[in-house]
Amino acid sequence: MRIHDSLIGVVLLALAAFMAFEAAGFPPMPGQRFGPSLVPNLLAAGFAICGLVLVATGLRNREVKGLVELGEWARKGGHVVDVGLVVGGLALLILVWRPVGFLIGATLYTGLLAARFRGGRLPSSFAIAFLACFAIDWAFRRLLLVPLPQGPLTGLYW
Amino acid sequence: MSAFETALGLVFEPYTLAMMVVAGLFGLFVGAMPGLTATMATALLVPVTFFMPPVPAIAMLVTATAMAIFAGDLPGALVRIPGTPASAAYVEDAHRLTRKGQAELVLGCGLVFSVIGGIFGSLVLAVSAPILAEFALGFSSFEYFWLALFGLSCAVFISTGRPIKGIVSVLLGLTLATVGIDPTAGHPRFTFGSVELTAGVSFIPAMIGMFAMAEVLRWVTSPRAIEDLAGRQKLGNVFEGQGRLLRRYWPNVLRSNLVGTAIGVLPGAGADIAAWVTYALSKRFSKEPEKFGTGHIEGVVDAGTANNSALAGAWVPALVFGIPGDTITAIVIGVLFIKGMNPGPTIMLNNPEFLYAIFIVFILANLLMLPLGWLAIKVFRQILAIPREFLMPLILVCCVVGSFAINNSVFGVGIMLVLGVVGYLMEENGFPIAPAILGLVLGEMIETHFMTSMIKADGNLLAFFERPVSAFLGVVTLTVWAWVAIGAIRRAVGPARARARSSGTG
Q1: pLDDT score, position B246
Q2: Are A71 and B224 in contact (CB under 8 A)?
Q3: Of B363, B337, B321, which Cα lies nearest the Cα of B63?
Q4: Are B396 and A86 within 8 A, CB to CB?
């Protein structure tokens, strides 16, 4: 997804304004003319300069049409669904991470994505996804001592 | 019995050697897994080392990190996801070489030159640790500030494409680093009332998101782009052609060893900066600078050597002064305290045998890298033989688990997801990702030293140039920025002048 330089420049200018606004509320250090706002303000100034440069170069570049140019993939409905599944599925996995647990959540997520990318073949996709997630769960839980959540399976394995 | 002989006995105990092999395999696994870092390998090993005597414990950490830094080259070359930040500098060249069908050469190069760099760094650590540490001890916040800024400048300088986009990327990383408690005054910034944000944005989920998650998104949106990659390539003798590379690039190897070790010695500047700086130097002094970023082995040789030599160098200030040379040695210092090997000048007086044991372990770990690294290359191919349709969802799951593991918090997974999407959009629009990561890693250090220096100088900026080393580093850094700025202005003004000339004549 190509975004026009001018639009990126405007976003950077807005970010700079936001940072400067927020930094204005930071208290100064006692006995000093500066404080926690100094570095954010310097960064905001940097963003503002870069934003202006990008707006200027973007306006000069007349070859690019439109503020946002979707890639070839976006014209194929399937790829849009793929991106939605990857990002949306991950967001959902974060939400249900604790109650559902790693093994169930990750198996469903991986299996669904694998089935989608392979154009079906649900049983084999989910079987391999389960084995892989089981191995990852075992390695992290037993070898690396990372307490991955087990959800409803708590106490049933390992 | 001398301290050195005692150290030899401690290291060559079967238990220590066995632990080194186990740690080596573990380090290779973590480094080779996209998104998992050498720092993470070290952090995850700490609970295991609680139950061990000092020497095997330290041997495990040294071996695991050395292997992980090398193994970071594997996913970098084969799926364009650097396993560790130290491999990020040359990931483009390594990956493009693989695309050209030279996976054997680039993987062998990563292995052989990692070993060379590691052994060189270890020898320097053993021979000149006190002298180099004494030099670094003379540094103040002014020098640290310039040094870190120089590292960032290199990140912008070497990034391909327009410098303005590299600068935006660095600024983004530095901005992310300002989130959380301010290091000087302790005031929360940009936390929006979130308790988790007060701890700041952890760079490990950020790196996993920007490098690994973004790579998966790129594959999803353009599967053909990496369809015909290394997985199906023949991986025969990876050592073939390495002698030729060494003969051709020996001055580069020597330079990278020296620069890498020196950077490693300087506190705060570890393997990542060593790789960036030596890659930039390699490009600067190369006879074929135009080939960098297009799949040229020279930068891989240089930076691949330097990141492993820096690893040993980073232990110098950590051992002798208790100042971490990088994130890995920051963890190691904690382990040394737990084991009663209090880092600092007294370690030389009280525990010389432990110190010698660490030097020996470093040499041994790097020698062990040859057989274990060869094995990792062979096994990694099997991972790549997994169809992309399975590999990509599994990489995503590894990203999730890796982001979770660093703090046992799902908040890290959220950071990974958000920055993964941001990273994808950045790359799509020509903004390099690596400067953002470096900005995030170095942000707090730069701010701490900048603010400390400002307080010392009472706001007088000229004080940043009053000390000789500080002045030198400052002038070098500003020269790099001026060079980049002049180049950008020339590129912007050149076409406009040409248009004006052509319209004048037409």
Answers
A1: 86
A2: no
A3: B363
A4: yes
User: Which candidate, B450, B408, B459, places its Cα nearest to that of B143?
Assistant: B450
Give the distance from residue A82's alpha carbon to the nearest chain B alpha carbon, in angstroms: 7
CA distance to partner chain A, nearest, from residue B406 (Å): 9
Tell me the pLDDT band of A136, cut-offs 50, 70 and 90: confident
Q: Is residue B233 very low, low, confident or very high in pLDDT (cuts 50, 70, 90)?
A: low
Overall average pLDDT of the B109-121 stretch: 88
Please tell me which of the candidates A1, A8, A94 has its beta carbon nearest to residue B410: A94
Give, in order, the Cα–Cα distances in Å from A66 to each of A1, A57, B423, B429.
Answer: 12, 15, 22, 14
pLDDT at B324 over 80: no
The DSSP annotation for B347-399 comes to: HHHH-HHHHHHHHHHHHHHHHHHHHHHHHHHHHHHHHHHS-HHHHHHHHHHHH
Task: Provide the token pair at B143.
Answer: 């020098």
Half-sphere exposure of residue B290: CA atoms within 13 angstroms, side-chain side: 0
**Are B183 and B451 spatial neighbours (Cβ–Cβ below 8 Å)?**
yes
Q: Is the pLDDT of residue B17 over 90?
A: yes
Radius of gyration over alpha carbons of chain B, in Å?
22
Cα distance between residue B328 and residue B29, in whole Å: 17
The answer to whether B361 touches B98, Cβ cutoff 8 Å, is: no
Q: How far apart are CA B325 and CA B130, in angstroms?
A: 15
- Determine how many CB atoms are found less than 10 A away from the CB of residue B288: 10
The DSSP secondary-structure symbol of B208 reads I
Considering only CA atoms, which of B210, B185, B233, B105 is closest in space to residue B431?
B210
Overall size of chain B counted in residues: 506
Which helix (H) or strand (E) element contains residue B189? Answer: strand B188-189
**CB–CB contact A26 B189 (8 Å):** yes
- Nearest Cα of chain A lies from the Cα of B464 at a distance, in angstroms, of 16
Chain B segment 25-44 residues within 8 A of A by beta carbon are: 26, 44
3-state helix, strand, coil in chain A (%, to 5): 70, 5, 30
Give dist(CA A8, CA A131) in Å, integer.
Answer: 43
When CB atoms are compared, the residue of B44, B168, B221 closest to A83 is: B221
| Top-confidence residue, A43 or B403 | A43
* Domain edges within chain B: 3-233+240-490
> pLDDT exceeding 90 applies to what percent of chain A?
45
* B419 contact partners, CB below 8 Å, separation of at least 6: B205, B206, B209, B210, B213
Q: Are B217 and B396 in contact (CB under 8 A)?
A: no
Cβ–Cβ < 8 Å for B204, B398:
no
Strand locations in A2-150 (E):
2-3, 68-69
Interchain contact A22–B (C-beta under 8 A): yes
- Chain A residues in contact with B216 by the CB 8 A cut-off are 86
Q: How far apart are the first and last CA of chain A?
A: 44
User: Model confidence at B227, in pLDDT bands (50, 70, 90)?
Assistant: very low
**Which pair of tokens denotes residue A86?**
């990857």
Please report residues of A whose CB lies closer than 8 A to that of B222: 71-73
* B105 phi, psi to nearest 5 deg: -65, -45
ipTM score above 0.85:
yes
- Residue A150 Cα, gap to closest chain B Cα (Å): 13
- Minimum-distance CB partner of A118 among B26, B389, B454: B389
**How many residue pairs from chains A and B have C-beta atoms closer than 8 A?**
150
Nearest-5° angle of CA A23, CA B168, CA B475?
Answer: 90
